[in-house]
Amino acid sequence: MAKHPGKGDTGFSGTRWPTRNSVGENAKNVSLATLQALLVDGIDLYNCTRQAHWNLKGTNFIGLHEMLEGFYNALNEETDLLAERMVLLGGVANGVTQNLTTSRLPPYPADLLDSIGHVKELADRYAQVGKALRDGIDETDDAGDADTADLLTELSRAIDKKLWMLEAHLHGHGTQPNPA
């Protein structure tokens, strides 16, 4: 399912359209590659969240089911912001599922049913996307695209909040993260 590409393999085609947007060319190139990688990860995270929402069973089913529905609805809006930023910078957002092989997230277990198992799998992926967003903030800011860095900061806060909610469900289940 998902491949784990090297840092430079983002799925960004490099296709560009002329725009009057004054962000510098190098900043656009860095931002477009960063945004494309985050778009793919975000769509993959959306799909993982829906997979869990549809299939979880067990402890706190209804609360988790409803929480995850809110998560994937928010992720839908958040990935839209990433794609729109790409397009306004003159790029082409590539989000069709056939092209999601560049996701940096590990494959989601299709046969998982246990609610706490789903929460752990999701927490790991939300943490990974949060880190990728923070890395993207630094990359785009260093390249001179403060607006993209600001967008990624907003999305980072939203992912961190979702991660916090997931981790709260894991408390007492022996699934706490290893200290860094």
UniProtKB/TrEMBL annotation:
<dbReference type="InterPro" id="IPR012347">
    <property type="entry name" value="Ferritin-like"/>
</dbReference>
<feature type="region of interest" description="Disordered">
    <location>
        <begin position="1"/>
        <end position="20"/>
    </location>
</feature>
<dbReference type="InterPro" id="IPR009078">
    <property type="entry name" value="Ferritin-like_SF"/>
</dbReference>
<dbReference type="Pfam" id="PF00210">
    <property type="entry name" value="Ferritin"/>
</dbReference>
<dbReference type="InterPro" id="IPR008331">
    <property type="entry name" value="Ferritin_DPS_dom"/>
</dbReference>
<comment type="similarity">
    <text>Belongs to the Dps family.</text>
</comment>
<protein>
    <submittedName>
        <fullName>DNA starvation/stationary phase protection protein Dps</fullName>
    </submittedName>
</protein>
<dbReference type="InterPro" id="IPR023188">
    <property type="entry name" value="DPS_DNA-bd_CS"/>
</dbReference>
<dbReference type="InterPro" id="IPR002177">
    <property type="entry name" value="DPS_DNA-bd"/>
</dbReference>
<feature type="domain" description="Ferritin/DPS">
    <location>
        <begin position="33"/>
        <end position="171"/>
    </location>
</feature>
